[in-house]
Design goal:
The chain is an alpha+beta fold and about 240 residues long. It has 2 domains: about 70 residues, SH3 type barrels; about 150 residues, Lysozyme, CATH 1.10.530.10. Helix content is about 40%, strand content about 10%. The strands form 2 sheets. Strands 1-6-5-4 form a 4-stranded antiparallel β-sheet, with no helix packed on it. Strands 3-2-7 form a 3-stranded antiparallel β-sheet. The longest helix has 18 residues. The protein starts with a helix and ends in a 9-residue tail after the last helix. About 40% of the residues are buried.
């Protein structure tokens, strides 16, 4: 285990055996910048997650302390280059420039939030489609919630708490605020913006670009397909 992992474990309470049927995952990224590899995780309730540590112990932490939970599956650099170097993606305008409302559910609400936060409505609609398939009450196995699948810590950063995260208007507004913030941070570079939305801006900073996680690579490719930017992959 890394020194970072040891610091996290030493400062926490070790528990007994993990409850049955945990979900599989391997990298937990914390809001304060540290990360920890785990054998698996399990959501205990709307506020807490239990992590099974590589040495057999367990750790219960607040979801407000977790930025992301990611599958620890690395892809070759060549597969990352497919999404990083996609020429149409480089030309895509992430900012609002008078684009029309998108097609699909919540079109008017997505358009209003996108315009308010200076985002291309098609980009916001693609993120919503990929994240929740437009389900306002969606909760992922990793704790992300609502239309734009905000983690509780991210929602709190942008003004949401408790059940507010499931309100479609407030979820869209907070998600668009976050997406716009990422656009500013990464100079409008679509692959980095999407990578940060999926894996967290800390992971992008640590890796100096798109992190080499298969989950993140596939997420970017899926958004490209929804936007019609990558014709090599079918939208799923």
């Amino acid at each position: 285990m890394s020194g970072t992992g040891r610091r996290i474990v030493c400062g926490a309470m070790l528990l007994g055996a993990l409850a049955a049927a945990p979900a599989a995952a391997e990298i937990v990224l914390f809001t304060h910048g540290d990360w920890l590899k785990v054998r698996s995780f399990q959501l205990l309730d709307q506020d807490r997650v239990r992590l099974e540590l590589p040495d057999g112990g367990t750790l219960v932490v607040s979801l407000l302390a977790i930025e992301r939970i990611l599958d620890d599956e690395i892809v070759p650099r060549a597969q990352l280059e497919e999404v990083i170097a996609e020429p149409e993606a480089r030309a895509f305008s992430v900012r609002f420039t008078g684009q029309p409302p998108p097609e699909g559910p919540f079109a008017d609400q997505i358009y209003a939030a996108a315009r308010r936060h200076r985002l291309n409505p098609a980009l916001v609609a693609a993120v919503v489609r990929a994240e929740s398939a437009y389900a306002t009450g969606a909760v992922s196995r990793k704790g992300a919630r609502g239309l734009m699948q905000l983690m509780p810590a991210t929602a709190a950063r942008f003004g949401l708490s408790g059940k507010e995260i499931f309100d479609p208007i407030r979820n869209l507004d907070a998600g668009c605020r976050y997406l716009s913030w990422l656009v500013d941070r990464f100079d409008g570079r679509l692959p980095l913006v999407l990578a940060a939305y999926n894996a967290g801006e800390g992971a992008v900073a640590r890796h100096g670009g798109v992190p080499p996680y298969r989950e993140t690579r596939d997420y970017i490719a899926r958004i490209y397909a929804f936007l019609g930017l990558d014709h090599r992959r079918d939208a799923r």
